[in-house]
Amino acid sequence: MPKQLQCRRVVVLALLLSVAFLGLAYRLVDLQVLRFEELSARARRNTRREFLREPRRGDILDIKGNLLATSVFVKTVCADPALIGNRQAEVARAVAPLLQMSENELMPRLMPHLSRTGKDEVVTNHYVVLKRKVQLETWQRIQTAMTNLSFGLDEKQLPRAEREFYRDLRRGAIYTEKLDDQLRVYPNQALAAHVLGYVGMEEPEVDGHRLLETSGKDGIEQSFNSALAGVRGWRLTETDRPGREVVPLREQDVEPCDGLNVVLTIDSVVQHIVESALAEGMEKHSPSNISGIVVRPRTGEILALAMLPNFDPNNLDAASVDARRNRVIGDVAEPGSTFKIIVVSGALNDGLVRLSDTFDCEHGYFYFAILWSAFGRKHHHPLL
Question: For the stretch 305-338, what's the b/e string if a residue is b when 16 or more beta carbons lie within 10 angstroms of its beta carbon?
Answer without folding.
Answer: bbbbbbbbbbeeeebeeebbbbebeeeeeeeeee
